[in-house]
Amino acid sequence: xxxxxxxxxxxxxxxxxxxxxxxxxxxxxxxxxxxxxxxxxxxxxxxxxxxxxxxxxxxxxxxxxxxxxxxxxxxxxxxxxxxxxxxxxxxxxxxxxxxxxxxxxxxxxxxxxxxxxxxxxxxxxxxxxxxxxxxxxxxxxxxxxxxxxxxxxxxxxxxxxxxxxxxxxxxxxxxxxxxxxxxxxxxxxxxxxxxxxxxxxxxxxxxxxxxxxxxxxxxxxxxxxxxxxxxxxxxxxxxxxxxxxxxxxxxxxxxxxxxxxxxxxxxxxxxxxxxxxxxxxxxxxxxxxxxxxxxxxxxxxxxxxxxxxxxxxxxxxxxxxxxxxxxxxxxxxxxxxxxxxxxxxxxxxxxxxxxxxxxxxxxxxxxxxxxx
Length: 372
Description:
Blueprint: H1 2-53, E1 65-69, H2 75-84, H3 91-100, E2 109-113, H4 119-128, E3 137-140, H5 147-157, H6 162-169, H7 172-181, E4 207-210, H8 217-232, H9 236-241, H10 246-259, H11 263-278, H12 286-293, H13 329-336, E5 345-348, E6 354-357, H14 360-370
Antiparallel strand pairs: 1-2, 3-4, 5-6
Helix pairs in contact: 2-3, 5-6, 10-11, 10-13, 11-13
């Protein structure tokens, strides 16, 4: 009897140990899964954190911030000064960036920086000792302007001939060089013979500081493209996910910019354009007609809608062939993140408000109600 009992205890012990081992394995497995998830989340968060730290603090800012770099300052001291003054996002990342790019030998002095500067621009200033208490020229380029209008502003503010500016930005050989230099945002799409001006839409709306009495046209153009690159780069993945090319995204954003005057309107207008594209309706946006006409006028007449142009969205069943103006970051963001709506129509009243409709009948009611 005692042997049977002993055998039974032995089997019970084996079963207990087996269950215990199974439980331990499950716990270890769960711990490993949790650790893997934590590491993955940490890795992604770390990547996004570093990516953000390498970007300008505020690409659209024109604030001037003076900082003093003392003689004999180490890279750590300089990084701390820049971070404390809001010129860079993270001093540690800045120091690592300097180390990886073998940068150093910075000059002491009083500098004027803006939060819109890239790390490379900051480094270049520190290396050359460009102590810029005040820019020679500070020029603001508003949103929603054509290259022709931008050329007019520079001609007014600088010793630059408008026709010379337009000649440079339409020079095919120069444009091809720019496509090579800015390959992430410029493509051969802008060389299409039906495109009126290759760089239309790509000269970013912002405030630009120039430290020479007579900057060259090329330096002006490339300063503007640098700013466009800075603004567009964080959105490149979203643009790809939307199955847009950069050219299409910039074109879309230019339409939103011309039709809307605030962030809420931009998001709604973007939604209308998406809905129209999905239902294969023409976008029918008046600013494209005005651009196709190539002349300034206050209103679009019915006869104007017949203009034969790849820009005229009353004629083409898609986006126009290219941008019709430069854009704001808000319009680009609305292009990629429209609100969810069923609107297919909209109109502007005399007060600047926009009224939306889901059906053509509703649209006609809005027209009778808000348009005199």
